[in-house]
Amino acid sequence: MSAAMKDSLTPGVLVLGASGTVGFGVVGALLEAGSPVLAVGRDGPRMGALAEHFADEPGLELLHFGCIQSDRDAERLAAQLRERPRPLRAVFASLGTPMQSGRLLDRPATLLMEKLEADLLPHLAAARHLLPLLAESNADTAHYVLIGGPHAERGWSGYGHASVTGAAVRMLAQVLHEEAHGLGVRVQLLSVDKPISTPDNLVNACAEWPNALAVGRSAVSLLTRTDAAAKPIVPYSPRDAVPPSTTLACDFEDALWAVAGARRNGRTSA
């Protein structure tokens, strides 16, 4: 068997929402752990920044697919993945729209419905078509990992729509955890109990807020952990966010600053 053929048969990992901040961190954590990565996201500056930052990583492949909004989108993605020679061992789903401030009582009920359609239903559509695909991977245990934020555990004043939607995604993960057990796929949600530190919020960020790479490392640790095998919801812990023995040579945060269009000295770039 040739080296190229052997490499194509090495199981890889799919990252949905790779162009987002958390998705960027998951991609970085997977690559530094030595896993081939297929990063799925919308074509645009953020995917361009991802490709540029990891240009020297032969294990990264980008798939400009667009948004998953329906069963039809997810079915089309699954069909494309089935045509690829490399099998999948895991899927990481970091999907969602930006949080909007405002009280539930001050907004029409239709806004919550729109938020659920934008942030909950894509998770269900993706899982419906990608969980069976993972079940075909012939891995001892395939993994499907969602990532949730702190607004899902307790209501955030002024961000009620995100809290309700996040809680629904959390419950979806628990249900999928049970339903996917018979498929040989472990579904889990990494619950991050603090906001993510980003270049945009760096001035106001608390010291204990994790960055995207730390969250990515914690999520990737679920692929090898056995202590959390029975838990559908796994809390983020800094203990699980340590780098592997071999890390990427480049500075990960530089790419996040480039994506945000800002400089470390606080001046906005042209």
From TrEMBL:
EC id: 1.-.-.-
CDD domains referenced in this protein's UniProt entry, alphabetically: SDR_c
Keyword annotations of the record: Oxidoreductase
Alphabetized GO MF terms: oxidoreductase activity
Pfam families with a match to the protein in the record: adh_short
Family: Belongs to the short-chain dehydrogenases/reductases (SDR) family.
The name this protein goes by in its record: SDR family oxidoreductase
